[in-house]
Amino acid sequence: MELKDLTDLVQKEMDFGLAKFGKYHSAHEQYAVLKEECEEWWDAIKGNFADCAHYELLQVAAVALRYIIENGDAASIENVQRMRHNK
Length: 87
Description:
This protein is mainly α and 87 residues long. It is globular.
């Protein structure tokens, strides 16, 4: 599997969350949603439910990317990435 295989699935998950709940109201709300998805991923791992674990990680990715899209600036993110990688 490659990233290109997942982009449509992540986009669908992002669109679903946005349609159902709207934009995040704060970083605190976004953190709470991300934490909940991580906990659900951990529960799926503990239950040995691989398909569910993969889906929960898809939700984690969707929540994280939605936050960046709604609040981020690509140039600033790229600058931080460049600084971190050049350490």
